[in-house]
Design brief:
five-stranded mixed barrel; mainly beta; 7 strands; 142 residues; OB fold (Dihydrolipoamide Acetyltransferase, E2P)
Length: 142
């Protein structure tokens, strides 16, 4: 059996880095991934895909990834159920990333403000080299 997924997209907001039980770092973020076709109005639509990384990779994502960055994420698709504070059960599907590549240059504060709503901006001079952040295991695999 095989469960591998590769995505390229832009972060919709800064990653949320937190430490879960046992002190394991976890970063959650959402990627906007363009579809490869246009709708009837001629507009390109996007899918918004929830992603999570663990341990050292989570800390690196939290430190270096910001809203609007173009990244590639490789990992596995996971569906899980959890209980909310009010007792209701929810189901979610997310990509558990074990590799992350930067595909653009980090933006300066001025560039980030100027392009805050521009999902098509590449953020660099087109010459940036992808950078693999790290590989990590989720706590349940350790």
């Amino acid at each position: 059996m095989l469960n591998r997924i590769q995505l390229i997209g832009r972060l919709t907001r800064d990653p949320e880095l937190r430490y879960v039980s046992g002190g394991h770092p976890m970063a959650q973020f959402t990627l906007a991934v363009d579809r490869d076709f246009r709708n009837a109005a001629g507009d390109r639509e996007a899918d918004f895909i929830n992603c999570v990384t663990w341990r050292k990779l989570a800390e690196l994502v939290g430190q270096y990834c910001t809203r609007g960055r173009l990244v590639a994420v490789e990992g596995r698709l996971q569906t899980r159920t959890y209980e909310t504070q009010d007792g209701s059960r929810r189901r979610t599907t997310e990509v558990v990333g074990d590799r992350v590549w930067f595909l653009d240059s980090p933006r300066t504060d001025g560039e980030r403000a100027a392009h805050a709503g521009d999902a098509e901006h590449d953020g660099g001079d087109g010459e940036a080299q992808p950078e693999v952040l790290a590989e990590a295991e989720s706590p349940e695999e350790a």
